[in-house]
Amino acid sequence: MKYTKLNFMMSVLGIIIYVTDLIVDIWVSVRFFYEGQYVFGILTVSFMLFGTLVVQCFSYSWFKDDLKESGQESQHCFLLLHCLQGGVFTRYWFALKKGYHVAFKYTSKTDNFVEEHIDPHKEVIDRVTDLSMLRLFETYLEGCPQLALQLYILLEHGQENFTQYAAIMVSCCAISWSTVDYQVALRKSLPDKNLLNGPCPKLVYLFYKLFTLLSWMLSVVLLLFLNVKIALFLLLFLWFLGILWAFKEQTDFCSSISMEFIYRIVAGFILVFTFFNIKGQNTKCPMSCYYIVRVLATLGILIVFWSYPLSVFNSDYFIPVSITIALTLLFGIIFLIVYYGTLHPNRSEETKLDEVDGKPVQRDCRMKYFLME
Asked: What's the whole-number mean pLDDT along residues 285-314?
């Protein structure tokens, strides 16, 4: 388990995408307020605050856990940094600083360290994995609602401007990157998990997630045009079901009861948009049910929308959007089947999907109870 120069470059790319996403979100919100579209501006800022506040809570909680494990007292400067929304940047600083030393300056001559010392490669990988999960949280808590809002605005007004296209493209890139990056980092941090090697599995996994998510986003936008109250009720209902499932699974990801409660709420929110394994257990049946319901819900929205007069929607976009929804859903399901059927890291094992069998392997990182699918 080594932290390589390529891993370091990917970490640098990650912070570039993070900063770009932040700048574009601020730019979009300022533009909305400048143009007098206060509702859209307030929604954009609200999505940003919701995502970043949750991420700062998890980041500070993990900082306290790490300090406690190392026998150190919690430092007030970390609390101040997180209150100022600088928790993620602080983590990037520590990860890149240590990662640069390990990737470029750490040689084989220094490998003969005393066994009780922490492996520097593992230390960096754990830090990068923490960052990947925080970015994953923020992406789905802020990026997905932001993407739905921008698509709604674009289709409602039919105005083509650089700001909207930039926001949509950056949101898609951020979602795609955080999804694949976390899957790769997580498997690298867990010793009993096979690595996601090669570009082909990563690309197929990326397209599976991106296409199924884009299809659902466009379906939700269509439902918003039809009836905002019905769309919000559906999303809240799905969120509630996701939270119930997290409680039913009795997740034990966090060290405190309060943070575990927040984690289950966040897990339920992410399940509204995509499926993931919230407890690192066999998920073949739940995932199959999830996407069967997703397909039926998407088809139901399309059928209902086709039965309504086109006056509720810009007819120039209606047919292309409907075709896009159908094709992205179809391609997403195909990529899903290809990934789990031929490219999944555990495909050569006689175990079921992400099921831990045989002699248990000791995992000493906080990700031991979480595995995204």
From this structure: 81
User: What CA–CA distance (Å, rounded) separates 231 from 157?
Assistant: 19
Give the Cα separation of 259 and 23 in Å (integer).
29
Q: How far apart are CA 150 and CA 62, in angstroms?
A: 33
In sequence order, the 6+-apart residues with CB closer than 8 A to the CB of 164 are 28, 150, 153, 154
Whole-number average pLDDT of the chain:
80
Q: Token match 């896009």: residue?
A: 324
Determine the Cα–Cα distance for residues 291 and 297; give it in Å rounded to an integer. Answer: 10
pTM equals: 0.84
Which tokens hold the place of 90? 């602080």
Query: Taking the mean position of all CA atoms in its chain, how far away is CA 327?
Result: 23
Cβ-based neighbour number of residue 105 at 10 Å: 8
Chain centroid to CA 275: how far?
A: 10
How does pLDDT run across 7-27, given as a tens digit for each residue?
Answer: 888 888 888 888 888 888 888
Mean pLDDT of 211-229: 89
| 277 strand-pairing partners | 371
Strand partners, 371: 277
- Look at residue 350 and tell me whether its pLDDT is greater than 50: no
| CA 143 to chain centroid | 9
Mean pLDDT to the nearest integer, 108-118: 50
d(CA 117, CA 301): 57
What average pLDDT score do residues 83-94 get? 86
The dihedral formed by the CA atoms of 184, 186, 187 and 192, expressed in degrees to the nearest 10:
180
User: Which amino acid, one-letter code, is at 87?
Assistant: G
